[in-house]
Amino acid sequence: MNVHHPDTLTLMEFSAGNLSEPHALCIRLHLDQCGDCRSRVDTLDSLGAVMMESQPQTEVSSGMFDSILSRIDSDADLSGQQVTTVAKGTARISPLEKLLGEDLNSLPWKRQMGDVSVLDITDRFPGQREQVVLQKLAAGGKAPSHTHRGEETTVVLQGAFADQKGVFNQWDFVVLNQEDDHKPVAVGCEDCITLSVLSAPVKLTGTFGRMLNPFIR
């Protein structure tokens, strides 16, 4: 079961088609494995269709907006009773597999520092401003202490990591910004692989890491 999810406003932006392609990919990967959030998006899609059919001059009041959010939360409480089935013999291909075309562990990883390896896939999203990076933290390894110069959206693709906010397992979703200073640790017996979308480079905060900041782009 996933513990960390996109917030309702982010799901609303996804449903409305307002997210960039990399951010939408992160949401789709989470939705593929999270029934709660799929239920929320289904509700948002339905409400959006109803609003599109209304007169274009109609304004959405704050009361209506709060009602929509309450409806979404109510429907999500019932989503645990829903079961998604896949026909026998049907192989499910994730959006990331379609994008990469190969297994995560077979990718041409580049060791960045210590226990961290990276693969920049920004070029797979032409015209996008954000940096899109796959990151692999070796099992039991630690990433350098860092904060963020902008916003970082991350979904866990394999394994798990822990920081001061808790444990993030496979398909969990997290958004970090300048207020977050953390040192992720890979937990479990396999490498932790994440997909991150960054609006700006990270900023190392450890004693040694600060000396490397001028070289991080």
From TrEMBL:
InterPro entries: Anti-sigma_ChrR, Anti_sigma_zinc_sf, ChrR-like_cupin_dom, RmlC-like_jellyroll, RmlC_Cupin_sf
Boundaries of every ChrR-like cupin domain copy: 105-195
One protein family per Pfam: Cupin_7
Protein name: Anti-sigma factor
